[in-house]
Design a protein that fits this description.
By secondary structure, the protein is an alpha+beta fold. Helix content is 24%, strand content 46%.
């Protein structure tokens, strides 16, 4: 269920016209030749979260936003839009159901050449249909 969740999340984020209009790419893993800003699903890990009658997974996902800017708040509106879109992910997905989607933590760092990276980590608990 980890891979289908990754695919659903990327598709859901990419389908948002507001995000698509502000980001040059919304992809799985880092794009090789894309101008900033872009968003990638950087990593995921899963563990068993099954119940008596259905298979389940707890999936941890890290989204990484890369952008350019001098000020720490340069991407705050974009981060808010990403967080709102993730929170609105429909529970019913093909082959599984998202039971909970929880924001865990964020990390931001200034990088060389006036770039920034913002990591957003989430925990999804999903059950098979």
């Amino acid at each position: 269920m980890e891979i289908p969740l990754r695919a659903s999340l990327i598709a859901w984020l990419a389908a948002d016209p507001a995000l698509a209009g502000q980001l040059n790419a919304i992809v799985e893993e880092a794009p090789t030749r894309t101008a900033l800003p872009w968003l990638a699903l950087a990593a995921s890990a899963s563990a068993d979260w099954s119940c008596k009658d259905r298979a389940g997974r707890e999936v941890r996902v890290a989204l990484e936003l890369h952008c350019r800017g001098d000020r720490p708040d340069v991407a705050s509106a974009l981060v808010n839009a990403i967080e709102a879109r993730v929170a609105a992910l429909p529970a019913a997905q093909a082959g599984f159901r998202v039971v909970t989607a929880t924001f865990l933590r964020a990390r931001a760092e200034q990088r060389p050449a006036n770039t920034r990276a913002i990591l957003l980590e989430y925990r999804f608990r999903v059950l098979a249909d």
